[in-house]
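ok trying again, last paste got cut off:
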Amino acid sequence: MERVQATPSGTVVVVRDASEGLELLMLQRSTRKADYFSGAWVFPGGKVEPSDLGDDELSRARSAAVREANEEAGLHLEPSHVLPLNRWEPEPSARQPRPFSAWIFLCVSDQTPVIDDHEIVDISWMRPHDCLAAFHQGSMVLAPPTWVTVLQLAQFHTVADLMAWARARQPEHFYTRFGEEDGTELLLWHGDELFDGTPGGRHRARMESGVWSYERNS
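nice, full thing came through this time. structure:
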């Protein structure tokens, strides 16, 4: 399939320290028809607009993430403190006719968020493990990039540890291929034997009904 231009976007994971550990800011989208993730819990973010300034896709996506954090949650983030974490991009397919290139950033803030109760209808500071538990119990809807990002953040107990890890690495590119194994839907990424032929490699999400699992050994 011919590769088409992806729509760029920027999303920011806002984190803070709390008495019981690291917390991240989650926003719930309103319920809308023809929205695959209607009602999902997300990080502040959205498409890059012409007003989002920058010299390349990364810097424009950062501008979009900062703007969206203000529009969706009333946060005023300093762009120089917004750190790139990962980039998500699906392989063009019939399933994904409108591909996207979504940058996810990190930023530390303890500002009090305010929502418009229109596009965003609920808001919560949550520990990553609590977010994952709510997802697996069926009380919280997460998109795959959000879910994998929360899994990554669940490794850390403090903002200092998380930010030290993030600053020491390059943003990871999750170029997603859709697959199937034994009737179970798979999302495949670099290092998986079904993605790039790495013998015995596992870097995938198994999307079984009601239960998702993330496997990685590469």
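cool. Residues 7-143+152-170 form a domain with the Nucleoside Triphosphate Pyrophosphohydrolase fold (CATH 3.90.79.10). The helical segments are 57-73, 128-136, 144-153, 159-167, 193-196.
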